[in-house]
Amino acid sequence: MDLIKEIKSKVKSLYPELLTIRRHIHAHPELSFKEEQTSLFIRKHLDRAGIIYKAGYCKYGIVAEIKGTKSSKLVYLRGDMDALPIKQISDKEYQSKIKGVMHACGHDVHTTCVLGSALVLNSLKHQIDGTIKIIFQPGEEKLPGGASIMIKEGAVKKSKTSVIYGQHVHPPLEAGKVGFFPGEYMASADELYIKVIGKGGHAALPENCIDSILVASEIVSTLHHVVSRYSDPQIPSVLSIGKINSVGGASNIIPDEVILEGTLRTMDEANRMKLHKLIKQLCKQQAAAYGAKVNVRIKYGYPTLKNDEQLVHQSMRYATDFLGAKNVVLLQKRMTAEDFSYYSQMMPACFYRLGTGNISKGIVSPVHTPTFDIDESALKVGVGLMSYMAIRKLKDKS
């Protein structure tokens, strides 16, 4: 039987089980690095199918293995498992049963798709010219990121012939479609924590104070010029302050301290380091101008996610074969971040988007919102395409 027809037939037969799997995971979400029950649920399915795996990476992570022929080529498929601290608004029977926690970023879909791919691929060993490893990863939503930990623990190893695929739900794209972007696709993401230390006092007597509110305001204003005046305009970069809190203070009290929190995102590692240094320098200069002190802490986040251009173009051809040209689209760069970026620093990577929206059904809510859901027909594409691309990549000589 033709490989595409064979995979689509298997996915069609598997679809009722995929729905059950996805709905169970969706109804029982677990926060980052706490995915104990999700991990056990996955292992039960792998055990039932007779798929070998190793568990315990990053505490709850799993790497399953499907071996075909003795070829040394290796393809990794990655799915993340964690949920978000968001209270779901839904009347669906599979809505979250865990108060204040929901799969608002589609990781239930990602897990279902890689588990479904493992089941499909396990039945197609005769078609596999190499080895396919399936990563069930904890903690994508929380620093330092489960990907970085799994790499440190040896779950993923670089070789001359290894590549990795990952997919992510994309509500703006209709179910049935997928999207790709070659090259630098998603930004690095660092967290900024800035403490301004002044001298508090009566707001009617500012001459006796070092106004931490004023200094913090000047720092915020200055930092918003960092990207527009100090960063290469050809490199996408964003700096935003998202939180300001005073320690004490009132309508008639100037506080001693003000805390600022923000994010820095860019798509170039040299530019990233340059901006880190500049942020610290500018904060100190502004504070010194008013006689205040400042502590600046920059918490390193995920690096830039770089899709391998050759692998992406190759994968787009596979997707066109599997879905038809009208269902394969070219995406734009994003300033959001993903810990899949750690894998993309190790080996050729292809991180693509799975369409999950359906305007006619009212399924349009963005990720990270209380009303997020998917058109579940996307599971067929998610499982089928991932399985097909893995097999095709191993068959191709390039």
How would you describe this structure in keywords?
about 400 residues; alpha/beta; Aminopeptidase; Alpha-Beta Plaits; 2 domains; eight-stranded mixed sheet; four-stranded antiparallel sheet; 10 helices; 16 strands; about 25% strand; elongated
Give a verbal description of the structure.
The radius of gyration is 24 Å and the shape is elongated. The protein has 10 helices and 16 strands. It has 2 domains: 3-186 and 304-395, Zn peptidases (Aminopeptidase), CATH 3.40.630; 188-299, 2-Layer Sandwich (Alpha-Beta Plaits). α3 links the parallel β3 (74-80) and β4. With 398 residues, the chain is of the alpha/beta class. The mean pLDDT is 97. α2 (36-49) packs parallel to α3, α5 runs antiparallel to α7 (269-289) and α8 crosses α10 (378-395). The chain has helices at residues 3-27, 36-49, 107-122, 146-152, 212-223, 226-230, 269-289, 309-323, 341-344, 378-395; strands at 52-57, 61-67, 74-80, 131-137, 162-174, 178-180, 183-186, 188-197, 201-202, 237-247, 253-254, 257-266, 293-299, 305-307, 328-330, 349-357. The strands form 4 sheets. It has an 8-stranded mixed beta sheet with strand order 1-2-4-3-5-16-6-15, with helices on both faces.
Q: What can be said about the biggest beta sheet?
A: 8 strands, mixed
CATH class of the largest domain: Alpha Beta
Beta-strand segment tally: 16
- CATH architect. name of the largest domain: 3-Layer(aba) Sandwich
Query: Can you list the strand order of the major beta sheet?
Result: 1-2-4-3-5-16-6-15
N-to-C series of helices and strands = HHEEEHEHEEEEEHHEEEHEEHEHEH
Based on helices, strands and strand pairing, what is the structural class?
Answer: alpha/beta
The CATH superfamily of the largest domain is identified as Zn peptidases
Helix content: 25-40%
Per DSSP, the total helix count is: 10
Q: What are the low-pLDDT stretches, counting only 5+ consecutive residues below 50?
A: none
Structural domain tally:
2
At CATH level 3, the topology of the largest domain is Aminopeptidase
Q: What is the end-to-end distance?
A: 24 Å
Mean pLDDT over the residues: 97
- Gyration radius (Cα, Å) is 24 Å
